[in-house]
Amino acid sequence: MATDDHPELDDTTFLDTRSHSIYRFLVGASQWIITLGRLDILYAVATMSHFNQTPRQGHLDRMLRIFGYLKFHSTIGLSMIPTVSSFPTTATPYVPQQWQEQYPNAREEVPSDAPTPLGRPVNLVVHVDASHASNLINRHSVTGYVVSANGVSMYWRSKEQIETSPFGSEIVAARIASEKIIEYRYKLRMMGLPLSGPSLLFGDNKSVISSCSVLSSTLKKRHNALAYHKIRECVAAGVIRIYHVDGKHNVADLLTKPLPGDVFRRHRAKLLFKPQM
Fold this sequence. Notes:
277 residues, alpha/beta, Nucleotidyltransferase, domain 5, 2 domains, 5-stranded mixed beta sheet, two-stranded antiparallel sheet, 7 strands, globular
């Protein structure tokens, strides 16, 4: 999508019946393409799918733009060579905290019937981001996150959420990502794979990171208390370690907003593989 594009403000003419059918076909086909690994178009397709019922000519033009992009970059795909993800040099260092007093019962639930772990340890890394009130009509935010195992992207999501503040949208996104980490740690254990310690969660909102990783931090917004304590409990249980990373290094930005071309390509290069021609 073009930088700062807002298709919800499009006021072109509504599509006729035939063009409407073509539009829905393009959206459905692109969703399968995302499932096959092209997460670089996820935000654009998720945004355009909101107009399936009453698309306009401008929406159809945007879908054709997406397929033009796919045609021009048809060789890009997921890299399936497992290499341990490099730790971002700009990430804040981890400072151990004494969580036992506030969360004395915090512990990870490990399945008792899991097979004996064998093979190479899995390093689970999640990047998460949220764009606050990015939709100018309904003021909804967008949550985006990418789950990677030893550098291979294995799950990605971009979805609208309803929150009233930038802090709230970011902490809700971090809570959703932490729950996804719990899910995948369970799945990996049940497949007989060893985990290399706590999973790493990267976000670019300093307030959320400090609130959830520093013991002395307090929450000033009570309506976010459930998300706040859920993340801190995961940290106390050793399930995750949460780090702040600068926004220009947060690949989850790719899933929450239209980006300038150079930023888009930089994030894409970290998630997808493009063979040298």
